[in-house]
Amino acid sequence: MGTRPLLNRRLAGMGSTIFAEMSALAAATGSINLGQGFPDRDGPREIAEAAAQAVLDGRGNQYPPGPGIPELRAAITEHQQRFYGLAYDPDTEVLVTAGATEAIAAALLALLEPGDEVIALEPFYDSYAACIAMAGATRVPLTLRAPAFRPDLDELRALITPRTRLLLINTPHNPTGTVLTPDELRTIAELACEHDLLVITDEVYEHLVFAGAHRPLAALPGMRERTVAISSAGKTFSFTGWKVGWVTGSPELVAAVRTAKQYLTFVSAGPFQYAVADALRLPDSYFDTLRADLLRKRDLLAAGLAAAGFEVFRPEGTYFITTDITPLGETDGLEFCRKLPERCGVVAIPNVVFYDNTEAGRSLVRWAFCKADSVLEEAVSRLRRL
Ligand code: PMP
Ligand code: GLN
Q1: C-alpha angle with apex 360: 7 to 9, nearest 5 degrees?
Q2: Which is the closest atom of ligand 2 to the Cα of 23?
Q3: Atom of ligand 1 nearest to the CA of 102
Q4: What is the pTM for the complete model shown?
Q5: What is the pLDDT of residues 319-335, one digit of tens each?
Q6: Closest Cα partner for 291 from 217, 347, 349, 212?
Q7: Which residues line ligand 2 (CB under 6 A)?
Q8: How are beta strands 364-368 and 94-98 bridged, if at all?
Q9: Residues 5-21, buried b or exposed e (16+ Cβ, 10 A)?
Q10: Of the four, 231, 275, 286, 353, which is 20 to 30 A from 344 by CA?
Q11: Distance (Å, rounded) from C-alpha 209 to C-alpha 204?
């Protein structure tokens, strides 16, 4: 085999994801898993039944259409209109993908050339770094710093170069829980227009906002024609294993993303697409209850983590809480998380893996609160041993 590394150099050092590592550690040690972000209760029963019924009725059991089934594309456009007043054409401006993950991959592979620079909010979700690398482009972090985790927009302005092609914006933001304000969004939009940049917005936590409101960047002046908006059913409907995601944008952008997407999975999740179409049409009460439940869980876990001695940064959105371990006399989040199962029987995620500027994330640790109250209570009682 010679001495040449097997793994393509663009993926060198990317090993296995932190989520896989930490979930395996939780399983091996029987720990409470507050690491990987998935709910411990499935979404609505009637939506699960709709998926089962679609399988039994033979809807979606063979390759669905490349852009997604028409019923789901229609439901996505209705959702964008209902929540944000944004009108999209279901035939040319919507694309169904294998989760937001595939949408991110397809968008980056479609829109980037080697040598392009992508400015992304740091800490960044792990697949951003991998997909930017696979596209041969370079990531440029705009670091959100504790305790407030706000973007410094003067710094953003200074990071833009003639090579900048794209801004990759995630709001509500994983892992910090930051929700961008109208002013922040306006400045980002103005910079994108001024420098003629493309924008990808990852909005998978759009319905998990506890303070302020989710506002799609695509709704701002000049943004519709340059923004690829991405979301998914995983977080909103508590079916992370179904992997139904989608893209909305101008016909030109969606066509570009579809070109890459068709050679990644081609299509996926046929019967689940029917069920997600139903889910997107659930009444407001569904979305309100989801948010209220998670708000209660956020406060329960935040109080418990504070009582255990962590510095707690209360998130405005998402189902994650970031903490600092420094008050516990600890400095290294990665080492802390690797030892935590043995010390306390709890698993968390070290935020440092989402940073290039590792100093900014070294002592930060993320906890998922999309779990039963009793599980959160047991976890915080175990953490009091620290
Ligand atoms: N973006 C962010 C910010 C996420 O946290 C996640 C994780 N679930 C994804 C994208 C991927 O979403 P999906 O499971 O729909 O692929
Ligand atoms: N998005 C989830 C998280 O941030 C994990 C998804 C994954 O395992 N890739 O925890």
Answers
A1: 10
A2: 8
A3: 16
A4: 0.97
A5: 999 999 999 999 999 99
A6: 212
A7: 17, 19, 36-37, 174
A8: unpaired
A9: eeeeeeeeeeeeebeeb
A10: 353
A11: 11
Q: Which residues line ligand 1 (CB under 6 A)?
A: 37, 99-101, 125, 170, 174, 202, 204, 232, 234, 240, 243, 245
* 54, amino acid identity: A
- Would you state the structure tokens that stand for residue 167, as one six-digit string? 């801004």
The residue whose CA is least distant from atom 8 of ligand 2 is 19
C-alpha span between 334 and 352 (Å, rounded): 7
Contacts of 3 (CB under 8 A, 6+ apart): none
CA torsion angle 122 212 288 282 (round to 10): -70
| Rounded Cα gap, residues 81 and 284, in angstroms | 14
Q: Which residue reads 């917005």 in tokens? A: 201
Overall size of the chain counted in residues = 386
Q: What is the signed CA dihedral for 46, 49, 50, 56, rounded to 10 degrees?
A: -170
Q: Which of 132, 75, 66, 56 is nearest to 98 (CA)?
A: 66
